[in-house]
Amino acid sequence: MNEVVIVEAIRTPVGKRNGALSEVRPDVLFADLLQELVKRASLEPSEVEDVIAGCVSQIGEQAGDIARIAALTAGFPIEVPGVTLDRQCGSSQQAIHFASQAIACGDMDVVIAGGVESMSRVPMFSNMKGTTFNDRLTSRFEMINQGQSAERIAEKWGLSRYDLDSYAAESHERALKATEEGRFEREMMPVTVGGDGGVLYQDEGPRPGTTVDTLGALKTVFQENGKITAGNASQISDGAAAVLLMSRKKAEALGLKPRFRVLSRAVVGSDPTLMLTGPVPATYQALQKAGLSMGDIDLFEVNEAFAPVPLFWMKETGVTHEKLNVNGGAIALGHPLGATGAKLMTSLVHELERSGGRYGLLAICEGHGMANGTVIERLEG
């Protein structure tokens, strides 16, 4: 089996709904990111053997295999193919897995894995209009929305509204601090927006002045007298991210520095009603495959789809908040669905390098009860 390494990882700033990135087509946004990725890596695009991209709402400007369209738009040779996939919120994490598997087995040596989502231009669920779940499915499972699932998780794990709002306020505080300290600068590609030459340099989501009190004033969304609000849930966002993966042998032959090794990949199915509980078994499976324990991991990224997810995950795993989502998460920074997996991987790579950590683990809950888990190792020298 070939050793799979990460050579480069970048992302756009994440734009808030109807914010600066709403002026940019998603296929163009991802194309610009592909250009920047190979430029930073000093790689000829002709070396790329596939572009694998996550995108959830594949309709309108995101239809027709956006990975291939973006590669062509980026000026990659016509011989470079592209494929787009949907594993819900973990789509671009799954893209990283598929790319790693192709490299590990020897089918390919150089693959770009990433994702893109413009939730402003292509609204969530727009690809589901006019459809319902079939009777055979609903006779077996209670199919509810993710917000209702989050309410049930909060109830099952004894999480109060104050717990959720406290976690959300901390997410904003961490994201604002990371932004002020320039922690995201190396991983970010500034994006030109509008016709006046304006440039978006930073994530638009983090809100100064977010406190438990301000969050506590918000109304619940999914359940009367419930706990989930717009303030303790992930933000609707726009953005893109991409990771350049290679076999170690190929990277060294090209004179490129392997920065991380992909140690393990896991994907699980979980209760489709509770839906958001998959990150726990995905975490344990990824650790087992890597031959590591929870204590070996320096940094964890668990997507903040809703505040109950990282909170119950910490209760189940025993991991402290000091190691989890250290620069904030989707509650503050946003959740551009198909891009989130690659975005979080990009942030994990750069933060491990900044902090000197060795091992990182990424886990993301996904619609209909699934989750991916990935373990990476920083390489010395």
UniProtKB/TrEMBL annotation:
Domain Thiolase N-terminal, chain residue ranges per copy: 4-248
Cross-referenced InterPro entries: Thiolase, Thiolase-like, Thiolase_AS, Thiolase_C, Thiolase_CS, Thiolase_N
Active-site residues from the entry: 89, 335, 365
Stretches assigned to the Thiolase C-terminal domain: 257-378
PANTHER family hit by this protein: ACETYL-COA C-ACYLTRANSFERASE, BLR7806 PROTEIN
Similarity section: Belongs to the thiolase-like superfamily. Thiolase family.
Protein name in the entry: Acetyl-CoA acetyltransferases
Species of origin: Halobacillus dabanensis
Higher taxonomy: Bacteria, Bacillati, Bacillota, Bacilli, Bacillales
